[in-house]
Amino acid sequence: MQRVYIFLLMVAVLFFGLFFGYKFASNFSFSIVGESGANKLSEAYKVIKNNYVDDLEQDKLTVEAIQGMLNSLDPHSTYLSAEQVRLANEEFQGNFEGIGIEFDIVDDTLIVVAPISGGPSEALGILAGDRIVQIDDSSAIGITNMEVIKKLRGKKGTSVNVKISRPEEFELLSFDIIRDKIPTFSIDLAMMLDQKTGYIKLSKYVESSHQEFTDAVKKLKSEGLEQLILDLRGNPGGLLNQAILIADEFIRGGLKIVYTKSRISNMQQTEFAQPNGQFESGGVIVLVDKGSASASEIVSGALQDHDRALVVGERTFGKGLVQRQYSLSDGSALRVTVSRYYSPLGRRIQRDYETGSEGRFEYYAKAYHRNKSTENAQSDSTSNDISSVTNVADKPVFTTTSGRKIIGGGGIIPDYEVKSDTLTPYTRLLRKNRLFSEFAMKQLATKGKHLRKTFKDNYLKFMKDYNIKSEDLTRFLTMANQNGIAFDERDYKKDKEVIKVIIKSKIARQLWGFKGEIAVLTKVDNVLNQAVDLFPKAIQLAGNKP
Q1: Alpha-carbon dihedral angle through residues 443, 448, 451, 453, given to the nearest 10 degrees
Q2: Is 319 a catalytic residue?
Q3: Tell me: the pLDDT tens digits for 67-82?
């Protein structure tokens, strides 16, 4: 499982965090003609192709040669196939073409988590909680995530038929859906936690991110926003210009946001804030963890350097290498590191790495297995005394305008380390076997019509008024036992309230999508709730600006 987690982390950071320079990529081409070593490489290729004992796939051999060269560089220089380039372009452009649903697969069943607002599925009346059992002439039972994407995405104007099982309907529902351009959103949730505290969860940086962010701030201000929590946990990065624009909303005009260094002069750049940002005053707290990388480190680093925010959580990933994408003739591409970026005070964000394939794996493994107790916390004292930081004797120290000491040397080290609560083995086993989602499906099968009528589109009312009852818990535990998970009374008593919230969040997810799930989970989010208590210090810090 650990190797799987590391692989997923690698995919996320490579997929989202390597796109700096994306908007300029089409202006460049890649060629090795005339470069030293090109003839030698060509000769080696011909010898292998003409003389190797077995037949070879020439394209595969070429790709392996390219990957071999890239492995001798840094962990973020990479090769993308033509299909990977296409998918990446869709993600970063903030749209794709398809039927417009968020989906999940629970117990071999394809579930509509939520129809995407403004998409063709929503227009036809497809609902959260619907089960897609057939796509065109093929059964959807047991379908994989990639198969769903291949079958449901497609060119605008093309049609796909889906058969849907809806709990309150006796017969299957048939929908002919005309695919269309679907906007993808980077803000998972924007809501008020109390009368003055706003919360924005930003999951990635795509072309729409800054507009989404400013719209969210305007909405929250209309609801009384005075202080803001920006949640960048698990945000692996994305478009550099969007990170700069979002950081600019917090920082006074004329102050540096980020700069890069390179051996190539035209690859170097420095970005400064413009005046009149939407949230240049008021307390700000930024939440980060080991999954916060690249563009997320630019934003959190800039706000921390300028005393504009307290950073809370865990040390970030430490990805400070800038890639530029170069297209190859067959539609594939190389993403090559061209520079390194630094925070306004000069902190190096990229952490150390070794080259080679083993070095790449270790690079990601260290991010996952990082010793949090000795690397993450700067201090939890009001003075932020550098002497309280553990195991940073070899790390450079920087001083902010207000005199705070912050640590460099790779990643963004938070001002206050707060670890996520650890679930008991029993609860983790329930989650691993997806029993929370399965139980939520059963609840919706019997109560879905009533819940939709009672709460309509108001997930905030659902958060406040809907509770998991004791008989619900009894049915849930019975279902778990029937699935071979023996009841653990000690673990259950410890996690009982959390278990209730997780069940509630999965019901909310099937009613309102990810935003409903995240909103409910804020009630048991240890990092978020401790961060709220730090606002007096964040407000004091905001008042220290010159």
Answers
A1: -170
A2: yes
A3: 888 888 998 898 988 8
